[in-house]
Input
Amino acid sequence: MNPPLTRPRSILFAAALAAFACPVAAQTEPAAAPQTVTFRFVQTNDLDRMEESDGRGGFARLAAVLKAERAEGSTFFVHSGDTISPSLLSGIDKGAHMIDILNQMGVDVMTPGNHEFDFGAETFRARIGEAKFPIVTSNVREPGDVQPANTVDEKIVEVEGIKIGFYGLTTAETPEVASPGEITFADEVETATARQASLEEQGADFIVAVVHSGITEDMEMARAGVADLILSGHDEHLMVFSNGNTIVTESESQADHVVVTTINLTKTVEDGETEVSWTPEFEIVDTATVEPDPEIAAVVQTYLDKLDQELGAEIGTTETALDSRRATVRGQEAAIGNLIADATREAVGADVGITNGGGIRADREYEAGTKLTRRDVFAELPFGNKTVKLEVTGQVLLDALENGFSQVEEVAGRFPHVSGMVVEVDLSKPTGERVQSVTIGSEPLDPAKTYTLATNDFIAGGGDGYSALVGSPNLIDAADAQLMASQVIDYIAAKGTISPKAEGRIKTM
Output
């Protein structure tokens, strides 16, 4: 067993595991001395924030890790998807800045994640077309079962005579959580099985699956042994897993931590038989312990400066007055609350919407005729919350509303602003008995019926007392969701002029 790596800037995750032996199809080469090669993988995934946060993560610190590993020998920089969305600047340039930064970092293999399709098929094609690095995607197809332009189905790279094969997969759930249009996504495990066979036929000595898929699919692929190493994204786990045959790793998100996998591979050819054995070593690098790379830091800063300028751009005009003062948004129906609830509900196509008044924070008034800017919206929604889509019963929805109106006297942040429904409330009643009626469309709420609900990820997780929502099936969860602020900006910009008002969605008795 090889000794573990001991770089002081890293958190050692595990010592080298026992060697993995993998017999390969018979070859015709004469007997040769064993050949040993070392190569490593620096993995990132779910990286949409270009700058660091609290001294950790972001491209400049990731670049520092990458540069240190490349100085040690053969290194593959692998991106397991989700990068062009969601972020503040991506809401403006549709992720072009992310591709530009990655172009300057020398990505060796990337596979698309579901967030690469948030802005539609045309934006996906445009961003992939701008990439100057290999996009490997094996289960994503254009209409007519056509490989997307500027991508490859699989890839083989030689390192000192050792063939390393790559294939890539994107979660088959992408059509449910993003907007890929007519682009289709084949089953991950079936595709992986076919790609493994293809790469083995081409003589690959070591097979790497770069995937953006859920943990269930990751484990199914590991059990099926469809790759030696699976570099995964999507769940945002910080993980190294081995079942003795296949390794699965994931690097959390935002490059806060980076998994580095080193493979020491020995290839022996004797009597027409080839045997490949390999020993893995792992590090989890906490990027708070590295100094940001100055070149990439400078690139990031130029985009942060651009973002600051873009936030001042006008997006539309409100023809009605808006009031986000604390007492207003936490105690009564408010035009700005209706605006936010409508924009987010429309963005995900839900039956109804709820957002909490405590998430609306600028505490100001806007006169009728005010020209709104992006900065105004981000000031109102500063927490980076995302819009999730839940499947809820009428009873769960009723319980959630009861919670929302339970602390109006305390001016609590849980006060609900709603879309797609009218709620009658008697605030003189005891907590839990205040909601007198709920009308959805033209029909009264049915406790046994199922509805789709747009809300923010904070209250979907039980924040502000919304425990009734916890456990409801996710149709769009936080990992797949988009920023509320970006959705509101897009809603205002698409209309040009807006005229939200308090129109009797919440009727107090």
Summary: Residues 313-508 form a domain with the 5'-nucleotidase;  domain 2 fold (CATH 3.90.780.10).
